[in-house]
Amino acid sequence: MLKLITPNWPAPSKVKAYTTTRQGGHSQAPYDSLNLGDHVDDDPKTVATNRATLRQLLPAEPVWLKQVHSTKIVTANTSNCTADAAMTTELNKVCVVLTADCLPVLFCDRAGTTVAAVHAGWRGLADGILEATLQRLNKAPEDILVWLGPAIGPQAFEVGEEVRDAFTDYLPQAIKAFKANGEGHWLADLYLLARQRLAHHGVTNVFGGEFCTYTDAERFYSYRRDKITGRMASLIWLNGKE
């Protein structure tokens, strides 16, 4: 049985969203069990079975992306696009991103007319994937709601000087998201970095951010922890039945 996380945010009823956990699928170790990534050397037939199981809960096949840590956003109408975010204003078009430590970010507007799913690793965050999404959404900041899904937590995400500098060069207050962890090493808070970037553009209705994929091995895949591992999916769509 699939075990899903439902975002804890005040989205309108038309907006439907979930993040999968690693539980409830058919993959064998080290991908056990609900691996939805078809690019991690898991058995393709098993991945297809896992996706088919998830599909039973959805109004349509998700728009699966080929993620490359870019800032490219596509409209959710064609699968297998090379991009790291998808958005839609159409009913029953399912936007999805895959993660296993990187930050999945879901967007909607208060009126329930637009949704987006974003894959935001540190490179995407630093390069402006959230800002690019806000530009595409083209909504007033106060009308945008954001949910931060399961990602590697601030106690586990060690980075080097180049990562810290990539954020602080753009936004000096980003220094607050880094804690020294030995010479030249820092613990980075992806959740805080995302909140800072959003707040810089007036978006403050931000929810979630209480997970850690690295430390919660029972529920989540973690590339940093395991290297060879599966992927969770974060999905969002506008429900056409309401």
Question: Mind explaining what this structure looks like?
Answer:
By secondary structure, this protein is an alpha+beta fold. The chain has one domain: 4-Layer Sandwich (CNF1/YfiH-like putative cysteine hydrolases), CATH 3.60.140. The chain is 21% helix and 26% strand. The chain contains six helices and 15 strands. It has helices at residues 44-55, 122-127, 129-137, 161-168, 190-200, 223-226, and strands at residues 4-5, 15-20, 65-66, 73-75, 81-82, 85-88, 95-99, 103-109, 115-120, 144-148, 158-160, 178-180, 185-188, 206-208, 232-238. It is globular, with a radius of gyration of 17 Å.
Instruction: Name the structural class.
Output: alpha+beta
Order of helices and strands: EEHEEEEEEEHHEEHEEHEHE
What proportion of the residues is helical, as a percent range?
10-25%
Share in β-strands: 25-35%
Task: Please provide the count of β strands.
Answer: 15
Strand order of the largest sheet: 4-6-9-8-10-14
CATH-scheme architecture: 4-Layer Sandwich
Shape: globular
CATH superfamily: CNF1/YfiH-like putative cysteine hydrolases
Number of helices: 6
Residue ranges: pLDDT <50 for 5 or more in a row?
Answer: none
What's the CATH C level? Alpha Beta
Average of pLDDT: 96
CATH topology descriptor: CNF1/YfiH-like putative cysteine hydrolases
Largest sheet: 6 strands, mixed
